[in-house]
Design brief:
The protein is α/β, with parallel strands linked by helices. It is 33% helix and 24% strand. The strands form five sheets. It has a seven-stranded mixed β-sheet, with helices on both faces. The protein has a six-stranded mixed β-sheet with strand order 18-19-23-20-21-22, with helices on both faces. The protein has a five-stranded parallel β-sheet with strand order 3-2-1-4-5, with helices on both faces. Reutilizes the intact tripeptide L-alanyl-gamma-D-glutamyl-meso-diaminopimelate by linking it to UDP-N-acetylmuramate.
Length: 449
């Protein structure tokens, strides 16, 4: 069967392409912007990519067109599909029908930490010999691919609350019907499709409605929005994590790189790993609860976490030049920026820390999170903000109140010049964006040589 994917370089759609190829289909795809890590992964899998949406790519007609949620009416390829009456489907629907049917789905939902937690969970199950399938919106370094079918009943999916397609405005995760569900956290995001937090809570409630009464819902005790979701109706047993939760962590190091795990007050073991930050400790507790639900004993799961290598673009060390360390990080929401910088600060102590931030997500472009930006960077010593011409609001005025020395730049060259002026051996530089950032990581490393 020939499947053509529109919007194939999105992390979700790229992963879908890998699964379709593994099922034996002939897979092609196109995207407006073809960039790593997804483009590299797809080319390595032998999947043919086309830049842009010229309808000529749909002739001869594929058997089905999977349409990504980044595409809307007016897109030339979308209009061609509709005018020619070609069969089309959303990505989440295709996944549900062709991959998830009849499997024990473990879904990881929440505003932050979905990719990292689903990577942790897939790895812990792998470590325990359960060979799960998975679809993750990033590339876990323990696997080097973002998706695989797996040949056991277990399938781990990163469950996103973003909508499914221009013709299906339900959240993606409503399609997945998990048996085990982690709800990591919940705050306002995706301002381009949700008017407010209650609208997102409603979608999370729709997810909870699909979880069987023999399943399990896992959530932290510290999230009032998730508490409200559960109170809307929950027909499934619940386990809680964190402060006052059934699963708790006792930190043995400030940066979260060593901690003891307790379940119902009983010590389960000690995690000693390469990760840092309170947010990753929380992700680990949820992972342990989910793994236990499918039969992995805690001691085995804890050993698995200690061998976990994180995810590409999640505080990934990409270069070290003359004693200056460069990291690539996906954080683009004030909460994620704050927790990531906090984890690194606790890890590096008093060493100089520079953050380079691109406000690139749809919510950021709409200015939905701008009030949280000035305070999100308090753990950095210096912050360089990127304000492209099309941002649509005054970034400089917004970050002027930040307690941290800041510089707003309108080009990559200006960013590189500013970082070069600030760094010295021992400095840590974190580049934060949910896109390719024009290849800044490589350009900066080269400039520092």
């Amino acid at each position: 069967m020939h499947i053509h994917i529109l919007g194939i370089c999105g992390t979700f759609m790229g992963s879908l392409a890998v699964l379709a190829k593994e099922l034996g289909h002939h897979v092609t795809g196109s995207d407006a912007n073809v960039y790593p890590p997804m483009s590299t992964q797809l080319q390595a899998q032998g999947i043919e990519l086309t830049q842009g949406y010229d309808p000529v790519q749909l002739d001869p007609a594929p058997d089905v067109v999977v349409i990504g949620n980044a595409l809307s009416r007016g897109n030339p390829a979308v209009e061609y599909v509709l005018n020619k009456g070609l069969p089309y489907v959303s990505g989440p629907q295709w996944l549900a029908d062709h991959v998830l049917q009849g499997r024990w789905v473990l879904a990881v939902a929440g505003t932050h930490g979905k990719t990292t937690t689903s990577s942790m969970l897939a790895w812990v199950l792998e470590y325990a010999g359960m060979a799960p399938g998975f679809l993750i919106g990033g590339v876990p370094q323990n696997f080097a691919v973002s998706a695989r079918l797996g040949d056991t009943p277990f399938f781990v999916v990163e469950a996103d609350e973003y909508d499914s397609a221009f013709f299906d405005k339900r959240s993606k995760f409503v399609h997945y019907r998990p048996r085990t569900a982690i709800l990591n956290n919940l705050e306002f995001d995706h301002a381009d499709i949700f008017p407010d937090l209650p609208a997102i809570e409603r979608q999370f409630h729709h997810l909870v409605r699909t979880i069987p009464s023999e399943g399990l819902v896992i959530h932290p005790t510290t999230e009032p929005a998730l508490q409200r979701v559960i109170e809307m109706g929950c027909w499934t047993p619940v386990q809680t994590t964190g402060v006052d939760g059934q699963w708790q962590a006792r930190l043995l190091s400030d940066d979260g790189s060593r901690f003891e795990v307790l379940f119902d007050g009983a010590l389960q073991g000690t995690v000693d790993w390469n990760m840092t930050g309170q947010h990753n400790v929380a992700n680990a507790l949820a992972t342990l609860a989910a793994a236990r639900h499918v039969g992995v004993v805690s001691s085995m799961a804890i050993d698995g976490l200690s061998a976990f290598k994180s995810v590409k673009r999640r505080m990934e060390k990409v270069a070290e030049v003359h004693g200056i360390t460069l990291y690539d990080d996906f954080a683009h929401h004030p909460t994620a920026i704050a927790t990531t910088l906090d984890g690194l600060r606790k890890h590096i102590g008093d060493a100089p820390l520079i953050a380079v931030i691109e406000p690139r997500s749809n919510s950021m472009k709409l200015g939905a999170h701008r009030d949280g930006l000035p305070q999100s960077v308090v753990q950095a010593d210096h912050v360089v903000w990127y304000a492209p011409a099309n941002l649509g609001w005054d970034l400089a005025a917004t970050v002027a109140s930040s307690p941290v020395p800041t510089k707003v730049c309108d080009s990559l060259d200006a960013i590189i010049a500013e970082v070069k002026a600030q760094v010295k051996p021992g400095t840590h530089v974190v580049i934060m964006s949910n896109g390719g950032f024009g290849g800044l990581h490589g350009k900066l490393a080269e400039a520092l040589q």
